[in-house]
């Protein structure tokens, strides 16, 4: 699990536990070879394009979390075809969060998008030849470069990851248009 460290306080010691956040993301590709992208409106990476997904709740099986996140963000059902890859973000944001993200390939069982405006400002089926023009997170670009090597270049790490860490560390109000400020202890899922 996470690593514990001591936080000194007058009169006693307190342990604060650090943890790794596990997320799942669906690389949803339809019969026209288009990828479903959403523009995030919550941190980290507010304003950037990603594939639908999110954090796994404690005790929740990975594939159930993936189905739940896709339904919550874009309102569609998917069939999960298999694991594509794992990507991690280390020391992200002002809390130095550590994310491990499992990317799964999927295809839609329903296609009428119903974006949840609490999490995404837009959702779009993007043809492979247009993917490179979207401002995506490094993890999204890394995965899509594996699926579409002829149209996408994998930006790699660490410089690309560091640039996104710096962007994520920017003050919340300037994070991007349409971004929601998440208050401590608030869950943005409805």
Can you put this structure into words, describing what you see?
The chain has 190 residues and is an alpha+beta fold. The protein is 17% helix and 36% strand. It has one domain (18-174): Nucleoside Triphosphate Pyrophosphohydrolase.
Helix-strand blueprint:
Layout: E1 4-9, E2 12-17, E3 20-28, E4 34-40, E5 49-50, E6 53-55, H1 62-74, E7 78-92, E8 97-108, E9 120-127, H2 138-147, H3 159-168
Parallel strand pairs: 3-8
Antiparallel strand pairs: 1-2, 3-6, 4-5, 4-9, 7-8
The span between the termini is 28 Å
* Biggest sheet, spatial arrangement of strands: 6-3-8-7
Q: Based on helices, strands and strand pairing, what is the structural class?
A: alpha+beta
Helix content, binned percent: 10-25%
Feature tags:
Nucleoside Triphosphate Pyrophosphohydrolase; four-stranded mixed β-sheet; three-stranded antiparallel β-sheet; 3 helices; disordered C terminus
How would you summarize what this structure contains?
By secondary structure, this protein is of the alpha+beta class. The chain has helices spanning 62-74, 138-147, 159-168, and strands at residues 4-9, 12-17, 20-28, 34-40, 49-50, 53-55, 78-92, 97-108, 120-127.
């Amino acid at each position: 699990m996470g690593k514990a460290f001591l936080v000194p306080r007058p009169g006693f010691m307190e342990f604060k536990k650090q943890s790794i956040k596990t997320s799942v993301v669906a690389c949803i590709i339809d019969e026209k070879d288009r990828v479903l992208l959403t523009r995030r409106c919550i941190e980290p990476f507010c304003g950037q394009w990603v594939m639908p997904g999110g954090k796994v709740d404690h005790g929740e099986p990975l594939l159930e979390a993936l189905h739940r996140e896709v339904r919550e963000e874009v309102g569609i059902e998917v069939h999960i075809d298999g694991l594509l890859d794992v990507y991690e973000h280390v020391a992200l944001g002002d809390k130095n969060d550590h994310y491990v993200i499992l990317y799964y390939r999927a295809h839609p069982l329903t296609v009428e998008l119903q974006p949840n405006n609490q999490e995404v400002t837009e959702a779009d089926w993007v043809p492979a030849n247009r993917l490179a023009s979207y401002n995506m997170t490094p993890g999204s670009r890394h995965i899509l470069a594996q699926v579409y090597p002829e149209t996408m270049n994998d930006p790699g790490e660490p410089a690309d990851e560091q640039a996104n860490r710096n962007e994520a560390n920017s003050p919340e109000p300037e994070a991007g248009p349409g971004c929601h400020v998440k208050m401590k202890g608030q869950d943005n899922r409805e």
